[in-house]
Amino acid sequence: MTGRLVVLSGLPGVGKTTIAEIVASRTGSVHLSIDEVEESILACGLPSGWKVGVAAYEATCAMAEQNLRLGHDVVVDAVNDSEEARQTWRTAASRTGSHIDFVYLVVSDVQDHERRLGGRNRGLAHVGEPSWSSVQRRRDDYAVWSHDVLNFDTAAQTADEIADTLTARLSTR
User: Fold this and answer.
1) Most buried by CB count within 10 Å: which residue of 64, 75, 103, 118?
2) Average confidence (pLDDT) over 41-60
3) What distance in Å separates the CA atoms of residue 72 and residue 50, rounded to the nearest whole number?
4) Cα separations (Å) of 165 from 36, 61, 64, 170?
5) Distances (CA, A) of 105 to 8, 11, 80, 134, 170
6) Is residue 30 within 8 Å of residue 74, measured between CB atoms?
7) Which range among 6-10, 105-109, 121-125 shows the weakest confidence by mean pLDDT?
8) 14 conformational bin, left if phi > 0, alpha if psi -120 to 50, beta if neither
9) How much is the CA Rg of the chain, to the nearest whole Å?
10) Domains in the chain with CATH codes
């Protein structure tokens, strides 16, 4: 039996990592974060840019596939703002025969979103924290979802409430 893949998506600062950590902790799933992988790649001295971002997605995808084949559920957190990024996970699920759930997180309260982003420090020396203006630009370029996705507003529900829903979905396989 292969594992199940849950892909948490959304702009920086919406709560992807927090929710992924809760779900992984509750279910014993593997948690993979694009930012952590990108941080490791940049720590090796490679220059920041699009290629490093793609490499982080591909490396994370390889780790996800390996764990899915072992029967582990995998929770990925990544912005996933393009159809190409999302295809990475659909391909991983297809190659491993795994079920995939895409989850899209937003913060409907713009002031709350800006506050969350401004107050966070994840300790990533190389990736750093995005500016509010860069997040706004990403919002403008964020690709519309072309397939089924679970939507949650982290201004309307707590991380624990969203994790409860996702944990229940993982337990029904």
Assistant:
1) 75
2) 94
3) 30
4) 25, 24, 22, 9
5) 7, 8, 11, 18, 18
6) yes
7) 121-125
8) alpha
9) 15
10) 5-171 (3.40.50.300)
